[in-house]
Amino acid sequence: MDKHVSIKDIALKLGVAPSTVSRALNGNSGVGKALREKIKAMALKLNYKPNPFAVGLVKQTPHIIGIIIPDIVTHFYSSIISGIGDTARANGYSVVITTSYEQYELEKHCIDDLNNIRVEGIIACLSQETSDYKHFENVVNQGVPLVFFDRVCLTDRCSSVVADNERSAYQAVQHLIANGYKRIAYIGGNEHLNIVDQRRRGYVRALADNCLPVYSDLMVDNLPMTYKSGRKAVRQLLALRRRPDAILAINDILAFGAMSEIKSRNLQIPTDIGLVGYSDELHATFVEPALTTVTHHTYEIGSVACDLLLRRINDATVKPKSVVIPTFLKIRASTAKRR
Amino acid sequence: MDKHVSIKDIALKLGVAPSTVSRALNGNSGVGKALREKIKAMALKLNYKPNPFAVGLVKQTPHIIGIIIPDIVTHFYSSIISGIGDTARANGYSVVITTSYEQYELEKHCIDDLNNIRVEGIIACLSQETSDYKHFENVVNQGVPLVFFDRVCLTDRCSSVVADNERSAYQAVQHLIANGYKRIAYIGGNEHLNIVDQRRRGYVRALADNCLPVYSDLMVDNLPMTYKSGRKAVRQLLALRRRPDAILAINDILAFGAMSEIKSRNLQIPTDIGLVGYSDELHATFVEPALTTVTHHTYEIGSVACDLLLRRINDATVKPKSVVIPTFLKIRASTAKRR
DNA sequence: TATTTTTACGCAAACGTTTGCGTAAAAATA
DNA sequence: TATTTTTACGCAAACGTTTGCGTAAAAATA
Questions:
Q1: Range of weakest confidence among A21-30, A284-293, B242-251, B265-274
Q2: Is B96 in Cβ contact with A96 (below 8 Å)?
Q3: Which residues pair with A94 in a beta bridge?
Q4: Which segments of B110-230 are extended strands (E)?
Q5: I need a labelling partner for B47 at 20 to 30 A (CA). Which of A13, A40, B58, B181 fits?
Q6: Residue B113: predicted pLDDT
Q7: What CATH number has the domain bearing residue B143?
Q8: How far apart are CA B184 and CA B182, in angstroms?
Q9: What's A39's DSSP letter?
Q10: Residues A39 and A129 in one domain
């Protein structure tokens, strides 16, 4: 078990002061060219790597950013993490990931943890449960840069990266109508989330713009966004006297639940019921029929969020900004034209 | 932007020495009961949180473990990360995740990065490309505890957590035979990986035990484990004069590729071709027909790997140990009995 | 009560960096 | 060549903890 070599080791070997070694290695002025080269060569030879704890202690900025995500096991979030991570690394930052498991209480713990590590900034996506934002306000009040993505809040004080939720839902419904569907149902999620509210509005507006009535019993609202909920919502919708001929589910996992329940009733997709979900690229092609989905550029969401955060870190005066990453409707078999 | 309060702040406020505060807060002896309580109360009131950089600097063990995984966007790995993370947290450790993106060169960088952070130990899964283990040997030689999972190496020097690969493949083939399939093909992966080699052996042994011939043209070997490869392998298999009536794909993403290609040829699963894949729970239920798969207890793999690592960290004399986490064959529609 | 032991604290050094300041030596200028 | 400026280094303090050691005061023992 060989100890890590320190600046002192190099200094001792070369008969110079540690401060000189530090300056040479960090490219600061005040050290002669020849000596600088000698120091660098020795550092390389001894495989010197700065001790991040010492650096973190002496500098007020240890170049770490924190992430708070609802869960890590869905492709949507892990792909966003990839985007954040790559951008962070490219700018000399490392990343610490915490998970709220969609729970408000755990989300608060995440903030504490990140705070303890002294992260320079935080990128967060709200948990499903979260409808009170005080814990995030505290972060902002402490001057810690904070950027939200997808499920956002405090947009007047924090930058955010969001999908064009209203438009995407509008477009999905428009597509269903164009393909001959007339009684289009909606399966929503926790209403306090911006994404839910916005997608709902897009759904309603699309119906209205096409002179279709908005039936409240075709809208299943304010449920947890789980596979189970998706199935339950469909049971509820199919129990109606006049059942829907298409469904917009505002979340991928809801859509998969819905699809499964529809199939178990021996109804055909897309002939009996058309189905549109939200998803990133991966899952939706595996199901049958392949699912028409609103698709996110997840990697880009991550990298843009990280960009915004780094900009804010480097300049506290930048104004909060909301970046919209356009989604696109990926049309597949589950909404094939009727007749 | 209020500064973090330090031990010194507390000491100053209470008129005691910083060392006393430290001892009181860490539960060490040598501080009176009354004073200890006063210090604790003040720490709570001022919301004192120890500076991890200072602690990391002064202690040789900053209680961080590192993870190296091939990618973060598949459920298999992110679920394992959950298992590791929860176990680590429960033991007062935090976790840093690095990604090799299935590339040997990047895997080496991961090790460097983790080394720089001075992690106390590393949990790793080999990248597809990796067939040379020197970089890991160096880690071991430096005395850094190292545990592998799933795709492993250096098992004589490092503990590992693996699936029962040989048995699982055997069982899958056995199941196919029992259901009337006779010409069973095999789609493998990069041969230097232990999981590939072992699953291949299980496949061969099951055929032999059932007195079925082992045809080498029914075995597609040594390909990258990607969706594309899955499709390509099936194209190759279906081009044979006598095509297979069942396929064992040794990886989930290969299986999905295979399924997609089979369907595009208008062949029926399971009637024309039976299909078994490897997967964790999530994806396989979404496809149609639902895929019979060898299923892993991913969360458990993670938590056991973390346990092994922590045990090794706390006692350098523990012997390397290989823990096998049993898989189970989840039988679904894709291998329904013929006739 | 006199001595020994224990308790309860503080002092100071250490972990590995960075950085402000000081100062010989070298270079530039007069 | 004499003076001023610049260069090239070293010293020492600092970041926020922990911990070995020392020592008064208190408690226990003789």
A1: A284-293
A2: yes
A3: A64
A4: 121-124, 146-149, 159-163, 184-187, 219-220
A5: B58
A6: 84
A7: 3.40.50.2300
A8: 6
A9: H
A10: no
A58 lies in a domain? no
CA pair distance A314, B101, nearest whole angstrom? 30
Averaged pLDDT for residues A164-190? 96
Residue A31 maps to a domain = yes
Question: What one-character DSSP code corresponds to residue B199?
Answer: H
Statement to judge: residues A25 and A140 lie in one domain:
no
Q: How far apart are CA A169 and CA A176, in angstroms?
A: 11
Do B45 and B31 fall within a single domain?
Answer: yes
Residue with the two structure tokens 């080269």: A37
Whether residue B153 is found in the same domain as residue B202: no
For residue A282, what pLDDT is reported?
Answer: 66
For residues A323 and A156, the answer to whether their CB atoms sit within 8 Å is no
Q: Which residue has the tokens 């176990």?
A: B87
Mean pLDDT comparison of B17-31, B101-115, B202-216, highest-scoring range: B202-216
One-letter amino acid identity for B9?
D
User: What is residue B1's predicted lDDT score, i.e. its pLDDT?
Assistant: 41
The pLDDT of A8-20, averaged and rounded, is 94
Output b/e per residue, A190-226; b: 16+ Cβ within 10 A: bebbbbbbbbbebbbbbbeeeeeeeeeebbbeebebb
Of A94, A90, A85, A88, the residue nearest A114 (C-alpha): A94
In angstroms, what separates the C-alpha of A284 from chain B's closest C-alpha? Answer: 9
User: What's the pLDDT tens digit per position in B126-183?
Assistant: 999 999 999 999 999 888 999 999 999 999 999 999 999 999 999 999 999 999 999 9
Q: Please state, rounded to an integer, the average pLDDT across all residues of chain B.
A: 92
CB–CB contact A73 B72 (8 Å): no
Instruction: Answer yes or no: are the C-beta atoms of A263 and B266 closer than 8 Å.
Output: no
- Positive or negative torsion for Cα A55, B96, A155, A105: negative
Q: Do A145 and A173 share a domain, yes or no?
A: no
State whether B101 and B216 are in the same domain: no
Range(s) of the domain holding residue A44: 7-50
Q: How many domains does chain A have?
A: 3
Structure tokens, B62: 């900053």
Mean residue pLDDT across chain A? 92
Ramachandran quadrant class, A27 (left: phi over 0; alpha: psi -120 to 50; beta: rest): left
Strand, coil or helix: what is A322? strand
Same domain, A146 and A131: yes
Residue A267 has pLDDT above 50, yes or no: yes
Name the nt closest to A20 by C-alpha to C1': D9
| Domain co-membership, A31 together with A144 | no
In a domain, B55, yes or no: no
Q: Under an 8 Å CB criterion, which residues of A touch B? A: 1-2, 4, 49-54, 56-57, 62, 72-75, 78-79, 81-82, 85, 94, 96-97, 99, 112-113, 115-118, 142-144, 256, 260, 263, 282-283, 285-288
Does A199 score more than 50 pLDDT?
A: yes
**pLDDT tens by residue, A127-169:** 999 999 999 999 998 889 999 999 999 999 999 999 999 999 9
Predicted local distance difference test score (pLDDT) of residue B28:
87
Identify all chain A residues contacting B96, using CB atoms and an 8 Å cutoff.
94, 96
Is the pLDDT at B235 greater than 60? The verdict is yes
Protein CA A319 to sugar C1' C20 (Å): 35
Enter the pTM of the model.
0.80
